[in-house]
Design a protein that fits this description.
- The chain is α/β, with parallel strands linked by helices and about 375 residues long.
- The chain is built from 17 helices and twelve strands.
- Helix 3 links the parallel strand 1 and strand 2.
- About 50% of the residues are buried.
């Protein structure tokens, strides 16, 4: 008996779904994916070349490292170079340019910067080295922010005074609303992220479909998952409908993960936050709540205010994240800016649109 995961990899089902997508005869539509894993899956499949001419796929702000503004990396580098501070971060963040270099360069010059795989790894660093102040650069959407909320809770409850978080965590829904209100993007539907939806649930996207008349379909990451999500969207567009559908029921529910959502509510407060490409969006950031002020690196060491920073000259990562240009339309793409010598964050991250397009580009 086939499991749902088996069906997601069934080649015959994939062919039928692709034929269904290719048979679309409705109005022209631009569909944006807002998940870096979707961006990589679509590029790897070569899916854009297989779609009807009336269907455009746009890569949106689905890569957490990519949407984190330059100022946040400047803050991280500042803290990393201070006496007695250990800056813990995820691997993708090491090579993202700040205004004055990268965390990797700061480490090469003597800063104590360490790559971790989870927030709990950073907690272990703080326990193991009580004489050092361990700061975790917190990145990500609702997929990863609950794990950092848990780490904050553990640090407070266990009295780990040398652990803090420099939060650049983002809430996904305000960005999706901002994109729909940006007339230049022309977004007609969203392929909604499977990972973040495990926490948010499908209900989180209802306001988008109801307020803006935008089809929203949650999809998984296997080729058949993506095709099923697109087929569901196109069926809605062709029928003139706009609703939320769940094409990933083996992992996503209507209500999401109540435990993770409760952690977010307790440990974080929602604040206005700057996104690369989208600017400052109201209520789109997660920062440690007042009860966790003793573990908020921005309040402890940086005066509580986030910093601004300038984008690298010539880089059009901001436009790529809005879906207004394709990565190949940036004059730096593939020439000056490559995975080996990245200029912008979208080429650095494994989930960045520029990195994915470069890796899977076709002659």
């Amino acid at each position: 008996m086939k499991t749902p995961a088996d069906a997601a990899r069934d080649p015959s089902l994939g062919r039928r779904l692709l034929e269904k997508v290719q048979a679309y005869r409705g109005p022209a539509v631009a569909i944006m994916e807002v998940c870096g894993t979707h961006t990589v899956a679509i590029a790897r499949m070569g899916l854009r070349d297989l779609l009807p001419q009336t269907v455009r796929l746009l890569s949106g702000p689905g890569c957490p490292v990519c949407v984190t503004p330059v100022g946040a990396f400047d803050e991280a580098i500042d803290l990393a170079t201070r006496e007695g501070v250990t800056l813990a971060t995820y691997g993708d963040a090491m090579r993202v340019p700040g205004s004055r270099g990268t965390l990797a360069q700061a480490r090469a010059e003597g800063a104590d910067v360490r790559v971790v795989y989870s927030a709990l790894d950073a907690l272990d660093l703080a326990r193991g080295e009580p004489a050092r102040r361990v700061v975790l650069l917190g990145l990500g959407f609702e997929t990863t922010s609950p794990t950092v909320a848990h780490a904050l809770t553990v640090a407070r409850d266990q009295g780990l005074k040398n652990f803090s978080v420099l939060s650049a965590h983002k809430a996904l829904l305000p960005a999706m609303r901002a994109l729909l209100e940006d007339a230049e993007t022309g977004i007609g539907a969203f392929l909604c992220p499977g990972h973040a939806s495990m926490v948010l649930g499908t209900q989180g996207f209802r306001s988008l479909s109801e307020t803006y008349g935008t089809p929203c379909v949650v999809a998984g990451f296997e080729p058949n998952d993506v095709l099923l999500g697109l087929a569901s969207i196109l069926q809605q567009v062709e029928a003139g409908q706009a609703r939320v559908e769940n094409a990933y029921p083996r992992a996503v529910t209507a209500d999401g993960n109540p435990v993770a959502l409760a952690l977010l509510t307790r440990a974080f407060r929602r604040v206005d936050a700057v996104w690369r490409g989208l600017g400052r969006l109201g209520g789109s950031g997660y920062e440690p709540a007042d009860a966790f002020a003793a573990h908020d690196a921005r309040r402890l060491y940086l005066g509580g205010e986030s910093r601004d920073g300038e984008e690298p000259r010539g880089c059009r990562c901001a436009d790529v994240l809005r879906g207004t240009i394709s990565p190949a339309s940036c004059p730096l793409f593939g020439a000056v800016c490559t995975p080996e010598t990245p200029v912008g964050a979208c080429m650095v991250s494994s989930e960045g649109a520029c990195g994915a397009h470069y890796r899977y580009r076709r002659a």
